[in-house]
Specification:
This protein is of the alpha/beta class. It has seven helices and nine strands.
Length: 198
C-alpha cells in the first residue's frame, strides 16, 4: 500500500470525523476491554494507539488508569480530546518513539490500516514502548491480504496469520479469537482479536 493510500485513510477520518464518532463512540467493546484490563496493574499506564473517538480511553481513565491517546487524524484528535478532557496527540504509528513507558498498548481497529510491509516497523515501535512484561491488544478485520472499502484500505488477518505476526515480532500470544462487529447494522462483519505480552 503506497503512502497515497495511507494518507487517504487519514483524510477519510478527517472528512468523516463526526459520522465516525457518532457510530463508534457507543460501541460496546467491554468484552475485550475487560480481557485486556485484567492484565494491567491498577493505575497502570496505557497507550491507546489510534484512539478514534476516544471511547476506550475514556473508560480507562474512569477506571483510574493513566492514558496517552494518539490518532493520525487531526479531526478525530479534536473529537477525542473533547470527550476525554485531555489532549490527544496527533501522531502516525510510524512516528511513535516511546521507550519502556507503558504497561499496556491498546490498538482497537486501528492497526488494520497499516500496510503489510510497514507492520513490522510499527510492531517494533509498539514493543519498544512497552515495559518488559507489558501487554498488547489489537483487532483487525477478519480475512486475508489487503482490501479497499470505499476510500479506505485495510490489511486483514486470520487467527493463524495474526498469531504468527505477533510471535515473529517478539510477543507471546495469550489470547486470540474472533468476534462479530458490535456496531448496529454491522453485526455480520467478523473481527480477529489478539492479546500478547512482551
Amino acid at each position: 500500500m503506497c503512502d497515497r493510500n495511507r494518507n487517504g485513510n487519514i483524510e477519510y477520518y478527517n472528512e468523516n470525523a463526526e459520522e465516525f464518532y457518532q457510530t463508534s463512540v457507543e460501541a460496546d467493546m467491554s468484552l475485550w476491554r475487560d480481557q485486556f484490563l485484567k492484565y494491567i496493574p491498577d493505575g497502570g499506564r496505557i497507550l491507546d494507539a489510534g484512539c478514534g473517538s476516544g471511547r476506550d480511553s475514556k473508560v480507562f481513565l474512569m477506571r483510574g488508569y493513566s492514558v496517552v491517546a494518539i490518532d493520525a487524524s487531526r479531526e478525530m484528535c479534536k473529537k477525542a480530546s473533547e470527550l476525554l478532557g485531555q489532549e490527544v496527540w496527533q501522531m502516525k504509528f510510524e512516528e511513535m518513539s516511546f521507550d519502556d513507558e507503558f504497561d499496556g498498548v491498546w490498538a482497537c481497529a486501528s492497526l488494520l490500516h497499516v500496510p503489510g510491509e510497514a507492520m513490522e516497523d510499527v510492531l517494533r515501535r509498539i514493543r519498544k514502548g512497552l515495559q518488559q512484561g507489558g501487554f498488547f491488544y489489537a483487532s483487525f478485520k477478519y480475512g486475508e491480504g489487503e482490501t479497499k472499502k470505499g476510500e479506505r484500505f485495510f490489511t486483514n488477518y486470520t487467527e493463524e496469520s495474526v498469531a504468527g505476526l505477533f510471535r515473529s515480532n517478539g510477543f507471546r500470544v495469550l489470547e486470540c479469537a474472533t468476534s462479530m462487529d458490535v456496531r448496529p447494522g454491522r453485526e455480520g462483519e467478523k473481527w480477529i482479536n489478539i492479546i500478547g505480552v512482551k
